[in-house]
Amino acid sequence: MKIYTKTGDKGTTALFGGTRVPKYHLRIESYGTVDELNSYIGLIRDQDIDNLTKQALTKIQNELFTLGAMLATPPEKETLKSGKERLNIPKINEASISFLETEIDNMNNTLPPMTHFVLPGGHQTVSFCHVARCVCRRAERLSVALNDEEGINNNVLMYLNRLSDYLFVLARKLTQTLQAEEIKWIPEKL
Description:
Blueprint: E1 12-14, E2 20-22, H1 26-45, H2 51-71, H3 94-108, H4 124-149, H5 154-177
Antiparallel strand pairs: 1-2
């Protein structure tokens, strides 16, 4: 597989199905941000954390590749003229979303209740979780805008929404595991 094709040298790229669009197209921004998110999740996975969390993060990274492929496929190119799906891979579905919800619930059961917002930080690994959460929220905002423009699979939006929650709870769990300080946000009185 050749890494460079030279087909994007003039500022366009091909979506799945062959349609060429500018590299700043909202669809490209959406799946490009998902790719950025996937890299940050890899950074979290590379930290000194437990194997079960690493396994969950690997599963999430694989699902983000699927989600990116779904975003890279414009609605008019999702099926062939024969009616067969063009993107012949498993899609993000309710089971993908349920996995995140179960992981969130399992982590939350081990944490003290939240009484305040928390400031990102306390440990480098925790900070990586918060950076990933913010990138996830950006991917979600871009995908919502894309959905308003062209329409996308609603499971993509639900998955990104749940994933940002997962990353927040993972940050709290790792704060506890790493014995870092969770700093509450308490607004100063005027």
